[in-house]
Design goal:
Largest interface: A-B, 101 and 101 residues
Number of helices of chain A: 16
Radius of gyration of chain A: 23 Å
Strand content of chain A: 15-25%
Largest sheet of chain A: 8 strands, antiparallel
Helix content of chain A: 25-40%
Oligomer: homodimer
Chain lengths: 529, 529
C-alpha cells in the first residue's frame, strides 16, 4: 500500500530535529528512544524480532497543550504520530503504529478524571485514565455510578471507546455511550463537539447532538484528530442486580440459543450486552491448555466434551447476561428470560441476585464483576493458554444475531483454526441486532512460526468471511488494508470518502497514516504528489 | 452572511439551462416553476408576501439515479439544491431553502418502503415515505413492529431523522435509531455507510458501525449529501403497553416533577421519550384560543388556572410516558414510576394498560397513539390557535434535565412570549439526561406584524438562552446563522471545521448553502474566491 521510504530511524535528520523540539516541549524524560520502551509501545504480542511496527520514539505528554505542541512540531518536520491512551489494544496490534517510522504518542500521563457525576450518571476523562483507575477512584470517593468496563481493566476508557470497544453493562456499546469530546486537530487547534462547541454549555456531556452534524463518531477508528477529553454515559447503581449464567450441553444447540436470545436483546429484556463463549474460552481464563490436555495440536472435540462434563456450571457454550433495577423488575425480567430460553434443548439458566449497594467483588466471578462494571485482569490469562510468553491475535467479525449466522461463522473459524494448529477459543459479543464473533489465536510469542501462522490465518479469513457477508469490526495493523479492501461497495466509495476527509482535515498526513486502511494522499498508491 | 447575488429568478440563464436539463432528466412534469408550487415548497408558515425563501423551481425525482443526475446537472451549472423528504419541517421553515435562489429537490416521489423486518425490528425507506404511509403499510401487510412517529404523521421518516427529530416510543431518539444510509454525494456518486460499504452485507441495518469512522451522523443536520435510503430501528410490538398520564395542579411544582423524572429516564424505567407540556399545549390540540378566552392578548395565568380546574385530567403541566413489555414487567415498572413521582406535590399518575396486539387507535387519545407509534394529525390544530391561516415558528433549546433548568427556561420564554403578544405554548421533550424545551409562537400568517414579532422573538431569544448556557436544537432558516454563531468555543471551531468538511465534500458549494449556518467557501464572509 505505501510507496515512500519510511522514517524508521532516529538517524533521520528530520526526526532528530523533531525529537529535539519534542524534548524541549514536554521534557526530555518523556521522550523515549531506548529499545526497551520502543518495544513496549510496539505490538507486544508479536515476536520481538518482528520490528516492522517498532516506533522510532515514544512521547508521553501530560497535557492537552503539550499534545497541541507535539502536533505542531510534527507537522513542521513531517513526522508521523500514532496516538493512543494506554496502548493496550490486545490482539489488535497493541500500541504499534500502522506505518513504519511513526512516532507513538502515548497519553498515559494525561490521567485526570475530570468529572464523575452521579446525578446524571456520566464521567469525563482524559485518555490516560484506565478502567482500573476509574473504578479505584469511584470506590475511594463514594461515587455510586457504575462505569462500564471491558474484560481486562488496564485499558483506557477513551482509547477503548475510540476503537469501538465493548463492555458488559447496560452501557456496553461504548461508542454509543460517548457524549461530547475535545479533540486536537492535525493543525494543533482544539475542537469541542456537540453542545461543547458553545463555551461553558452544561449539556456538553448530557445531549448527544449540538447544532449541525454530530462529529463524535468521526474521530472513532479514525486518524482525523487526537481526542484529549471524552464524556461517557454510565449506569446508576441499581437497587438490585442479577448476574445470569446460561450453559448449553451440546454444541449443536448454539443456533437455538442465539435465536432465542435475539428478541430479548431487541426489546432490552436482557438489559446488558451479554457474551456467549466456548468452554475453551472459560477454561483459558483459569488455566493453560496443558492443564486440560497433554497431547499436541488442538484439543479434540470429544476431549472437550469430556472435560466440560466434569466441570459444574460449564457448558460447551456458555452465556452471561444481566438485569438491573428495582427488585420487582429484576425478578420479573429474570423470569421472562428464563422462560424464553427454556425452548433451547439442554439449556440451564441460573442467576445470582445481589443488592447494588452490597456488592462484594471478591464474591463474584469474572462475569459477575464485569457485568457490574468492576474491572478485572483475570482474562489476561487467556494469552497464556499456549504457554511461553503469551500472545494472541484477534479475528472479529460482525454478523446478524441469528443461529444460522452463528453456525456459519463457527463452521468457518473452528476448522480453519484447528488446521493452523490453534484451539478454537471463540465467542459472541451480543448487541441488539448483531453480534461480533471474536476469536483469539493464542500462541507463544517466542514461537515465531506459530505467530506467523496466526497472522496468516487472520489475514486469510478476512476475505472468506467477506464473501459470506461478514465484515471485520477491528483489525491488527498488518490486516487493516486487507479489511478495508473488503468494504468494496461502489469501487470502495467509503475508503475514497475517508481519503477525501483525511486530505482536508490532515493535509500533511501526519496523524496515524494507514490506521483502518486510511492513508494520506502522499502515501496512497499511484499518488504523485 | 452571504456576499453574492443570488440566482433567485428563472430568468437567470444558468438556471434556465439547468432547468432544461432537469426536465430532460426527470420529466418536465416533475420540474415545477409555477408560483403556486414554489409557494407550497417555501415556508408555508410565513406570510405569502415574504418571498425571501421562495425557491425558483421545485424538482421531484423518483429514483436515486435521478437524484444523481440532478446533482451532476446542478454542479455543471452552479445551481444550488435544497433537498427534503416531504418538506414539512413545521415551524423550522417548512420546505424553504436557506439561500435565496436555491432550487428545492423534494423527494416525495421516492416513496418506496424497501424493507419491513419484524424479526430484527427495523425498516428501510426512501425519503418520500411518510409516517402515515408507513403505518398504513405495516397495518395492511400484517407487520407487527412499531415504527416511531413524531406528533404529526405527514412528515418523512428520513427527513425527520436527518433533522434530529423526535418521537415518543422506545426509539423516539430518532437520530440514535438510524442504522445505515445510502447517500448521493455532491459529485453525484453513491456512498453507503457502515456495513453497507461492503457489497451485500446483511448487517447494514443491524450494526451501527463498520470499519473506520461511522459516517451516518455526518449527513444529519448537514449539507454534505442527499440521503436516498435509510435504515431505522423500531420496537417489536410488546405483549403489553401502558400509556401513562401525569397531571400537575400547580405550575410551581414543575421543577419537582422534572427532578423526579430524571432518574427514571437515566435508568430507562420510563422506557420511552416522554413529553411534559402546558395546559395551553393540550388545549391548542382541541380548540382555538377564542374557545377558551374571549379577551385580547395572552390568556392571563389566573384565567388558565380556572380553565384547567374545570377540565378533568388536565393540569397546569401534563406529562405522558409509556412502558412496554410482558405483563409482569409493565406492572412492576408502572408501580415504580408511580412511587417515584409521588414525591411531587399535587401530582396525579394514571395509566391505561393495553395488550399490544389489541390496540384500537380509535380508543386512544393523541398521546396514547404516538406512544404506540400510531401517527396522527390532530396536533396540526395547534397552528390554528390564533385563528386565521395558522402558522408558527419554533424556538427549541437543549437543557440539562433538571427542575432548575426547566424553571429558568420557562421564566425566560413565558414572559418574553407574552410581552410579544403570544400565549406561552411550551413543553419539554425528555431524553435520558437532557431535555428540549420547545415553544411554538402561533400566529395568523395573514397577520404580518404578528409573524414578524414571532420571528424577531425567536431570534432575540437565541442569544439570551446561549448566555444562560442553552443551545438550540433546530432553527428556522432565518435563524440558522444566528444560532450557529452562538457555538463560539475557540473562535467558532466547530463552524470552521464544518466549513473545511463542506469545501472538501462539496467544493462547488451546490448543496443547501447556509443550512445550519454552514456556507460553502464562495458564499462565506470575506471569501475572495
Amino acid at each position: 500500500m505505501t510507496t515512500d521510504t519510511p522514517r524508521a530511524d532516529v538517524d533521520d535528520p528530520q526526526l532528530a530535529a523533531a525529537l529535539d523540539e519534542f524534548r524541549a516541549a514536554i521534557g526530555a524524560e518523556h521522550v523515549a528512544t531506548d529499545l526497551e520502551t520502543r518495544h513496549e509501545f510496539s505490538d507486544t504480542y508479536s515476536p520481538r524480532s518482528w520490528t516492522e511496527y517498532l516506533p522510532p520514539a515514544v512521547l508521553q505528554p501530560a497535557t492537552t497543550e503539550e499534545v497541541q505542541e507535539i502536533v505542531r512540531i510534527a507537522s513542521r518536520h513531517g513526522v508521523e504520530l500514532w496516538a493512543n491512551g494506554q496502548g493496550r489494544n490486545n490482539g489488535y496490534g497493541g500500541s504499534a503504529p500502522a506505518h513504519a517510522g511513526t512516532v507513538v504518542v502515548n497519553l498515559r500521563r494525561m490521567n485526570r478524571i475530570l468529572e464523575v457525576n452521579d446525578e446524571f450518571s456520566y464521567v469525563v476523562v482524559e485518555p490516560g485514565v484506565s478502567f482500573n483507575d476509574m473504578y479505584d477512584y469511584t470506590q475511594a470517593n463514594g461515587h455510586t455510578l457504575w462505569v462500564d468496563t471491558p474484560d481486562i481493566g488496564w485499558g483506557s476508557l477513551v482509547g477503548n471507546a475510540l476503537e469501538h470497544g465493548f463492555g458488559y453493562t447496560a452501557h456496553g456499546d461504548r461508542a454509543n455511550s460517548v457524549c461530547g469530546m475535545e479533540i486536537v486537530l492535525p493543525d494543533g487547534s482544539l475542537l469541542r463537539t456537540g453542545m461543547g462547541a458553545m463555551t461553558d454549555n452544561p449539556s456538553w456531556h448530557l445531549s448527544k447532538r449540538g447544532f449541525g452534524p454530530m462529529l463524535d463518531s468521526l474521530f472513532m477508528q479514525s486518524n482525523f484528530g487526537i481526542v484529549t477529553k471524552m464524556g461517557l454515559w454510565c449506569m446508576p447503581q441499581p437497587e438490585y442486580y442479577i448476574t445470569g449464567w446460561v450453559t448449553l450441553e451440546d454444541d449443536e444447540h448454539l443456533p437455538a440459543l442465539l435465536d432465542a436470545v435475539r428478541p430479548l436483546m431487541i426489546d432490552r429484556t436482557i438489559m446488558n450486552y451479554p457474551s456467549v463463549f466456548t468452554a475453551s474460552g472459560a477454561l483459558a481464563v483459569v488455566g493453560k491448555r496443558t492443564d486440560f490436555f497433554p497431547g499436541d495440536g488442538p484439543i479434540p472435540f470429544e476431549v472437550s466434551k469430556a472435560i466440560v462434563a466434569q466441570i459444574p456450571n460449564l457448558g460447551m457454550w456458555n452465556m452471561r447476561f444481566a438485569v438491573y433495577g428495582k427488585e420487582n423488575t429484576v425478578d420479573a425480567q429474570f423470569d421472562n428470560i428464563k422462560a424464553a430460553l427454556s425452548v433451547v434443548p439442554g439449556v440451564e439458566v441460573i442467576g445470582t441476585k445481589i443488592r447494588g449497594d452490597e456488592i462484594d467483588p471478591e464474591s463474584l466471578d469474572q462475569s459477575g464483576k464485569v457485568q457490574a462494571g468492576i474491572p478485572d485482569m483475570q482474562l489476561l490469562n487467556t494469552s497464556s493458554w499456549a504457554g511461553g510468553v503469551g500472545g494472541h491475535i484477534g479475528f472479529s467479525t460482525v454478523l446478524p444475531l441469528t443461529g444460522r449466522d452463528g453456525r456459519r461463522i463457527t463452521d468457518l473459524v473452528r476448522p480453519a483454526s484447528e488446521a493452523a494448529g490453534f484451539d478454537y477459543i471463540g465467542g459472541f459479543l451480543l448487541r441488539e441486532r448483531s453480534m461480533m464473533h471474536v476469536t483469539l489465536m493464542v500462541y507463544d510469542t517466542e514461537d515465531e512460526p506459530a505467530a506467523a501462522r496466526a497472522r496468516d490465518l487472520c489475514a486469510n479469513l478476512v476475505g472468506t468471511a467477506a464473501k459470506m457477508g461478514y465484515g471485520e469490526y477491528r483489525a491488527h495493523p498488518s490486516n487493516m488494508d486487507n479489511v478495508q479492501s473488503t468494504f468494496d461497495y461502489n469501487d470502495h466509495a467509503m475508503r475514497r470518502f475517508y481519503e477525501r476527509l483525511k486530505d482536508a482535515i490532515d493535509p500533511a498526513g501526519i496523524l496515524a497514516p494507514g490506521k483502518q486502511g486510511i492513508w494520506p494522499r502522499r502515501l496512497r498508491d499511484g499518488s504523485a504528489d
